[in-house]
Design brief:
By secondary structure, the protein is α/β, with parallel strands linked by helices. The chain has one domain: Aldolase class I (TIM Barrel). 49% of the residues lie in helices and 16% in strands. The protein is built from eleven helices and eight strands. It is globular, with a radius of gyration of 17 Å.
C-alpha cells in the first residue's frame, strides 16, 4: 500500500464568531477555537473577514496574527479595504473569494477570467508583501488558466456542488463532479499551481476528495464547528484528520 504525502488541514473558525455575534457577547472566542484547532492537528487556520463583519472582526484578525503558531489563511474579497488590511498584517496566505452581502455563505468560485486585468493588479502588492495568493474558483479549466496568468500561487477548488449532490443522494451526478474536481486538481498542479479544496465537506464525503494525489490542502469550517457542539472541537478535528490521513493511503 502506498501512502501519499500528508494532506494539510486548514480549520475555518468563522462560525465560532457567528455564534459569539448572535448574542453580542465575548464568547465563544474564535481565538480560543484556533488554539484548540492547532493542538488537535490543524495545519493552518482560515478566517474570512467579510465586508459586513458578520462573523470575524478586525480585532479577531489582529489577535490571530499575534498568537498563531501555524499559518493564517486570510480570506477576503478583492476590495481596496481588504487589500489594505492584508498589507498591514501580512498573513501567510490570502485567499481571494467572491462575496455578496445577501448570501449566507460563499456560493461559488471567483470569476477570474472576466476580471483578469483588475485581479492581476490587485494581487501584485499582496505577493510583494510576502503573502501567498490563493484564488477560490470552480473546477473550470478556463478559471484555472486565468488564475495562473494573473500570478496566483494557489487555487482552491469549490467543492460545494459535489457535497450538495452527495447529501441529496444524486450519486451519478456527484461522481461526475468528483471526477471534474480530480481532473482540475491534476491540471492545476501540472501548471505549477498548488491545489487546495474546500466548502461543504463532511465526514461522509471528504475521503474521495482527500485521495486526490495532487491535492495539498483542505479547508473545512462549518461542519467542524457544527460537529463540535456534540463531540467537542478537538475531537471533531481529530476525526477529520484521521479520515483525511486514511484516504491518503492508496
Amino acid at each position: 500500500m502506498e501512502t501519499l504525502e500528508k494532506l494539510r488541514l486548514g480549520v475555518n473558525i468563522d462560525h465560532v464568531a457567528t455564534v459569539r455575534n448572535a448574542r453580542g457577547s465575548e464568547y465563544p472566542d474564535p481565538i480560543r477555537a484556533a488554539k484548540i484547532a492547532e493542538k488537535a492537528g490543524a495545519d493552518g487556520i482560515t478566517a474570512h473577514l467579510r465586508e459586513d463583519r458578520r462573523h470575524i472582526s478586525d480585532q479577531d484578525i489582529e489577535r490571530l496574527v499575534e498568537i498563531l503558531t501555524v499559518p493564517l489563511n486570510f480570506e477576503m474579497a478583492a476590495t481596496q479595504e481588504m487589500q489594505k488590511i492584508a498589507l498591514r498584517h501580512k498573513p501567510h496566505a490570502v485567499c481571494i473569494v467572491p462575496e455578496k452581502r445577501e448570501e449566507r455563505t460563499t456560493e461559488g468560485g471567483l470569476e477570474v477570467a472576466r476580471e483578469e486585468n483588475r485581479l492581476a493588479h490587485f494581487i501584485a502588492p499582496l505577493r510583494e508583501s510576502g503573502s501567498r495568493v490563493s484564488i477560490f474558483i470552480a473546477a473550470d479549466q478556463k478559471q484555472i488558466d486565468a488564475a495562473n496568468r494573473i500570478g496566483a500561487q494557489v487555487i482552491e477548488l469549490h467543492t460545494g456542488a459535489y457535497c450538495d449532490l452527495h447529501a441529496e443522494g444524486r450519486f451519478e451526478e456527484r461522481d461526475v463532479e468528483l471526477e471534474r474536481l480530480c481532473e482540475m486538481t491534476a491540471y492545476a498542479s501540472s501548471l505549477g499551481l498548488e491545489a487546495h479544496a474546500g466548502h461543504g465537506l463532511t465526514y461522509d464525503c471528504v475521503q474521495p476528495v482527500a485521495a486526490f494525489p495532487e491535492l495539498v490542502e483542505l479547508n473545512i469550517g462549518h461542519f467542524l464547528i457544527s460537529e463540535a457542539v456534540f463531540r467537542g472541537l478537538g475531537p471533531a478535528i481529530e476525526e477529520m484528520r484521521r479520515l483525511m490521513d486514511e484516504a491518503r493511503v492508496a
